Amino acid sequence: MKILVGITGGIAAYRGAELARTLTKRGHVVRCCLTEAGSRFITPLTLASLTGQPCFGANPEYHEWRPNPIIEHVDLARWADVVAVAPATADIMGKTANGLANDLLSTLLLATTAPVLWAPAMNKAMWAHPAVQANVARLKGFGHTVVEPAEGMLACGEEGAGRLAEVADIADAVETLAGPAHPALAGRAILITAGPTQEDLDPVRTLTNRSSGAMGIELARAFRNAGARVSLVLGGDLPAPWGVPTVRVRSAQQMLEACQALWPDQDGLVAAAAVADQRPQTCAQEKVKKGLGPETLVLVRTPDVLSTLSANRGRDQWLLGFAAESEAHVPNATAKLHMKHLDGILVNDIRGGKGFGLQANVLIPITTSGQAESLGPLPKDQLAQAVVRWWGDWLGGKGK
Description:
Layout: E1 2-7, H1 13-25, E2 29-34, H2 44-51, E3 55-57, H3 60-63, H4 72-79, E4 82-88, H5 90-97, H6 104-111, E5 116-120, H7 124-128, H8 130-141, E6 145-146, E7 150-153, E8 159-163, H9 167-178, E9 189-194, E10 199-200, E11 206-207, H10 214-225, E12 229-234, E13 246-248, H11 252-262, E14 268-271, E15 278-280, E16 299-301, H12 305-311, E17 318-325, H13 329-339, E18 344-349, E19 361-367, E20 370-371, E21 375-378, H14 380-398
Parallel strand pairs: 1-2, 1-4, 2-3, 4-5, 5-6, 9-12, 9-14, 12-13, 14-17, 17-18
Antiparallel strand pairs: 7-8, 10-11, 15-16, 18-19, 19-20, 19-21
């Protein structure tokens, strides 16, 4: 994807450079357009070094050899798949909202037909001002996307809404605007479960597993970027991806209840959560003290989230499950596929701690048609993208 990052004047300009670097590391071609005010906080050389691309705008050295600077705003406007302004000041948003242009960035923002994203950063009183909010509303009316500022300590020493959103969230938002939609997934409502569940023994101790939830979160991002309307039911502590409605849960029962509430309105389910199979028969109200004698923990089964949803599926709903196996991987996963009446399942080998955390992973896809070619080894973000392509292609071929 070709992304133009506009960086305006403000202390958050250094985080605009971080955004450009993040998008570059994710494999995109990134060019920066720096305003004169922005160049007082960060230099064109810094941005060119981080992206490997020339910096436009406040960069006099570039104009010394630019062959046709007269139409530069048109060239950049046509070049970009997405234009992201981060940080976006009240000034640049006000200009664009009212059709004003007196520098390269404001001019190309009027010339581009690409999706435009704004990540505002300013004092909390400025952000709350009716004129700024009216301009934001007008930009949204143009079809632009706004990543709302976060709350926290501001450069002026005050606290409130006005901090630039997290760079990872802005990068996620950029990728949603021009990511290639998969025809079998675009507009589809997909429920994804992710992360571990935790079953309390007492107010301090829990029964859980080694899952971090990273794979499920990356799947939520990848399905979102493919054009799906994703809902996420998430256990664990990892942050939810930007733009994905998320229900936080702790126990298997909570996960089941959250999924049951969402399931009737979904086209499909991706069950990537690591749901604990057992819970303590009783949960102590106070912390259990060490005893002198032997201690026994009585366990009972937790509800089977996937089986319950499968038993209550609609005629056109599909289910994609996951299996973490330490032996007989394909036979065990195939048995789970048929026992729970799934359309597909992805199995990974967890021997020696493989598959957990942020390490690269391999998944073996199995459907009702049989075993497919393995996906990976890949980092989990790339593996999630591979899963989405494979599953979208399978759905398209099956006519689901």
